[in-house]
Structures are given as structure tokens and as C-alpha cells.
């Protein structure tokens, strides 16, 4: 297994095509989680993912899990649920609370370590990481966070403390992002939950082509301002 060792003196990453097949997408090791390095990584379709006690590991899996703007799927029961269940959603109101809640959601083996939380808080302050919050009677019950790359949003994690709250976060955000010119939501690796919502897999090469096409085209003005998000259109 040949892994590229990142240099502390350089922000350069290897080409994602050099990532391992097994484990799928493992590309490099080392470096740090500085804002500049994270920005460069995401621009190339690379993200950090590692467990406590491990060195920083960098990934670019093939295939790549993505959600296209018109592909979000809601079951009939989910539509009925949303019509009768009063949630409210906001954008970029309590990023710190969301990332800590995502870490707690995966407490049995979280990759959202203290170092990750610190790094993405800095990325948020730099205007690149964003959160969606779902509220019920004034209590935070769900949400998600991720990293913006122009007209592509790279989802990192979500959490839910009430039935369907994370699905609501994704639905409301997807409609908001699309209204502001968003082209694609990157979900990194597919799972049963995201697949049920319409997430699909595409070859890494195709994802990187989309990323190169849209990463320098910003979403419309006002997209990332802290704001309430309207209820979704069902």
C-alpha cells in the first residue's frame, strides 16, 4: 500500500486518480487541518476522515455519492409527515451546536474529533463551511453541515433528534441551494439513508469534472447569509 505523505512545507495533494481501491479512496496521510489546506483539498475533491488516535487520512472515493438538484426523493409517507409536522429551519445560525451534535450522533466511533471540530469552526469563520438547523418549538432537533465550493456543496454530516429532522434539513437546504444556483450536493459515500433520498453514485472522474466546472461559480448573492429557510415545496 503506497500512500502519499503530505509535507508540512507544502499544500500540494497527489492526483485523486492515485487513490487506493482498497480501502476505497484512501489517497494521502499527514499534513494538518489548516483552512488553506482544507480549501485546497475540497477544490480537488479530497476530504479528511480519520478516527481518534490515527494520523490525518485524506480520501477521494470512486465512485462518488452525489445528489443532483432534481433527484431528491420523498416517499408518500414522508410527504404526509412533513405536512403535519411543524419544523422550522435556519441557515448558519448555530454552526458550533450543529457540528457538536453531529459528533454526538456518532459517539460510538466518531470521526468528528476535537481537531475536526476546531478546524471546521475555523472554516466556518472563513465563510466556507455552513450549517442548516432544524428547530421544533425552539429546540434544535436536527441539522447538517458541509463545505461550499462555488455551486457545489460538500456535505459532511447530519444529525437528528426527532423523526425525519435530518431529512427535513436536507430537503430544505436542497431547495434553497437550487434556488441560488446550486448544481450538486456531494455526499461522499453512499449509505442506505442517503440512497433512500435519491443520492446516487457516479464515477469519481465525472464528479471531478463537475467540481472543476462549478467550483469557481459562486451561488447567488445572499445564499449563505444567516437566515430562516422557507418550508419546502412538496
Automatic annotation (TrEMBL):
<protein>
    <recommendedName>
        <fullName>Leucyl/phenylalanyl-tRNA--protein transferase</fullName>
        <ecNumber>2.3.2.6</ecNumber>
    </recommendedName>
</protein>
<dbReference type="InterPro" id="IPR042203">
    <property type="entry name" value="Leu/Phe-tRNA_Trfase_C"/>
</dbReference>
<dbReference type="GO" id="GO:0005737">
    <property type="term" value="C:cytoplasm"/>
</dbReference>
<comment type="function">
    <text>Functions in the N-end rule pathway of protein degradation where it conjugates Leu, Phe and, less efficiently, Met from aminoacyl-tRNAs to the N-termini of proteins containing an N-terminal arginine or lysine.</text>
</comment>
<dbReference type="GO" id="GO:0008914">
    <property type="term" value="F:leucyl-tRNA--protein transferase activity"/>
</dbReference>
<dbReference type="Pfam" id="PF03588">
    <property type="entry name" value="Leu_Phe_trans"/>
</dbReference>
<keyword id="KW-0963">Cytoplasm</keyword>
<keyword id="KW-0808">Transferase</keyword>
<keyword id="KW-0012">Acyltransferase</keyword>
<dbReference type="InterPro" id="IPR004616">
    <property type="entry name" value="Leu/Phe-tRNA_Trfase"/>
</dbReference>
<dbReference type="InterPro" id="IPR042221">
    <property type="entry name" value="Leu/Phe-tRNA_Trfase_N"/>
</dbReference>
<dbReference type="GO" id="GO:0030163">
    <property type="term" value="P:protein catabolic process"/>
</dbReference>
<comment type="similarity">
    <text>Belongs to the L/F-transferase family.</text>
</comment>
<dbReference type="InterPro" id="IPR016181">
    <property type="entry name" value="Acyl_CoA_acyltransferase"/>
</dbReference>
